[in-house]
Each structure stands twice: as structure tokens, then as C-alpha cells.
């Protein structure tokens, strides 16, 4: 199965929204079972400002659908989301 990378940038000033929906996001990640790797992007101050998520799903549509149902996305956290196929070479 191919891997898909989601690169998500938070809206400016949305740190509190991220913190408020983080538990629901983590529960969704655990429940769906398709996340290979994930973690927050950090701004210059070291605060969470986005997400990098690698998904093991059959196609880009499935990855986009997964992302749209993420509680972060449903809460309106993201300013931009990029979904692209990713090829693991190292690690």
C-alpha cells in the first residue's frame, strides 16, 4: 500500500484551539489505525504550529478523506493542508 504525507499548517493564533482538540485528534489517530508516523510542526518559539502525518492508505482520496475527518480539521484548525504520495527510502 502506498504512503501519503499530510502537511498541515495551523491558522495564525490557533494554538489554544489545537490544545483544546488534541485529545480528540489523538483518539482519532488511535481509532483509525492508519497513521505510520506523525507529530507537530513547531514555530520559532517552539510552539505547535502544524502537523506532519504519514498515512498508510490505498489512495490519495482515502488520505484526503481521513484528513477531512480529523478533529483538528473539523475544528477549523488548519490554514492549509497538502496531501501527497510519499515514498519511504530511509528508516
TrEMBL record:
Output the superkingdom of the source species.
Bacteria
Sorted alphabetically, which Gene3D superfamilies does this protein's record hold? Dimeric alpha+beta barrel (3.30.70.1060)
Where in this chain does the entry annotate a coiled-coil region? Answer: none
* Occurrences of domain YCII-related (ranges): 3-87
Query: What InterPro entries is this protein classified in?
Result: Dimeric_a/b-barrel (IPR011008), Sec-metab_biosynth-assoc (IPR051807), YCII (IPR005545)
Instruction: Report the SUPFAM superfamilies cross-referenced here.
Output: Dimeric alpha+beta barrel (SSF54909)
> According to its UniProt record, which protein family does this protein belong to?
Belongs to the YciI family.
Listed name of the protein: YCII-related domain-containing protein
- Organism equals Roseinatronobacter thiooxidans
Q: What is the lineage of its organism?
A: Bacteria, Pseudomonadati, Pseudomonadota, Alphaproteobacteria, Rhodobacterales
Amino acid at each position: 500500500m502506498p504512503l501519503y504525507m499530510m502537511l498541515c499548517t495551523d491558522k495564525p493564533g490557533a494554538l489554544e484551539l489545537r490544545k483544546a482538540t488534541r485529545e480528540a485528534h489523538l483518539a482519532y489517530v488511535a481509532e483509525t489505525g492508519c497513521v505510520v508516523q506523525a507529530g507537530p510542526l513547531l514555530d520559532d518559539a517552539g510552539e505547535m504550529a502544524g502537523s506532519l502525518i504519514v498515512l498508510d492508505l490505498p489512495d490519495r482520496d482515502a488520505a484526503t478523506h481521513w484528513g477531512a475527518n480529523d478533529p483538528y480539521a473539523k475544528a477549523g484548525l488548519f490554514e492549509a493542508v497538502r496531501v501527497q504520495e510519499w515514498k519511504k527510502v530511509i528508516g
